[in-house]
Specification:
heterodimer, A: 114 residues, mainly beta, 0% helix, globular, B: 109 residues, 5-stranded antiparallel sheet, 57% strand
Chain lengths: 114, 109
C-alpha cells in the first residue's frame, strides 16, 4: 500500500463521453502530480499542484482538465477524448515540489478511448 | 532538447549481477532518481543521487557522474522478483522530472 489511491482502476469511454479520474493521498504531502504512461514511452508529466496551486501545465490539450480541491485530492476531468489518449494515467504525490523529494505513485487508471 | 537514454531491455540470470545504464542531457541538473515498476503496478522509489559517487542500499547501488551525464543502477544477487522495469529520471533546472522510457529487466532461472 503506497498511500496513494486512484479510482477507477479501469475505464472505457467513448469519444463523446465525460468522465473524471480521482486520486487521493493519505501521506500528508503538499504536492500532487498527474502523469500519462504509454507503452514503451517515458512518463509524461501533465500537471503539477503544490499547496493546491497549479505549478506547471506541460502543453496538455484542453480536453484534460485538472482540479485540486485540497492537498489530499486531485481530479482529472476528461471530455471529448481521442483514441490516442488511451494510456495508463498515474497520480503521484511528494512531500513538497522540489528537486530531492521522491514521488509516491498510485496504481493508475487504465483508460481506453473507443 | 532534454533526453534520457537507457537500454530498452536486458536479460540476466538469477543470482548474478546486472548494471543498468542511464545517460542524460537536460537543461540543468538537480538530482537523479531510479524507480522500479513491476508490470501492472505503480513505480516505486529506489534511489536518489545528487552528488558524484556510489550510493549503496542493500542489494541495490546507484552511481552518478555529473560531468559525464551518466548514472547506473547495480543489482546484486538477482532474484526472480527483480524482474521489472527500471526507470531513470532527472530533475532539471526548473525542478521538473524528466523520465527515461525505462529498462525492462528479465531474470532467468
Amino acid at each position: 500500500e503506497t498511500g496513494v489511491t486512484q479510482t477507477p482502476r479501469h475505464l472505457v469511454m467513448g469519444m463523446t463521453n465525460k468522465k473524471s479520474l480521482k486520486c487521493e493521498q493519505h501521506l500528508g504531502h503538499n504536492a500532487m502530480y498527474w502523469y500519462k504512461q504509454s507503452a514503451k514511452k517515458p512518463l509524461e508529466l501533465m500537471f503539477v499542484y503544490s499547496l493546491e496551486e497549479r505549478v506547471e501545465n506541460n502543453s496538455v490539450p484542453s480536453r484534460f482538465s485538472p482540479e485540486c480541491p485540497n492537498s489530499s485530492h486531485l481530479f482529472l476531468h476528461l471530455h471529448t477524448l481521442q483514441p490516442e489518449d488511451s494510456a495508463l494515467y498515474l497520480c503521484a504525490s511528494s512531500q513538497e515540489h522540489g528537486a530531492s523529494y521522491e514521488q509516491y505513485f498510485g496504481p493508475g487508471t487504465r483508460l481506453t478511448v473507443t | 532538447g532534454q533526453n534520457i537514454d537507457q537500454p530498452t531491455e536486458m536479460t540476466a540470470t538469477e543470482g548474478a549481477i546486472v548494471q543498468i545504464n542511464c545517460t542524460y542531457q537536460t537543461s540543468g541538473f538537480n538530482g537523479l532518481f531510479w524507480y522500479q515498476q513491476h508490470a501492472g503496478e505503480a513505480p516505486t522509489f529506489l534511489s536518489y543521487n545528487v552528488l558524484d559517487g556510489l550510493e549503496e542500499k542493500g542489494r541495490f547501488s546507484s552511481f552518478l557522474s555529473r560531468s559525464k551525464g551518466y548514472s547506473y543502477l547495480l543489482l546484486k544477487e538477482l532474484q526472480m522478483k527483480d524482474s521489472a522495469s527500471y526507470l531513470c529520471a532527472v530533475t532539471d533546472s526548473n525542478y521538473q522530472l524528466i523520465w527515461g522510457a525505462g529498462t525492462k529487466l528479465i531474470i532467468k532461472p
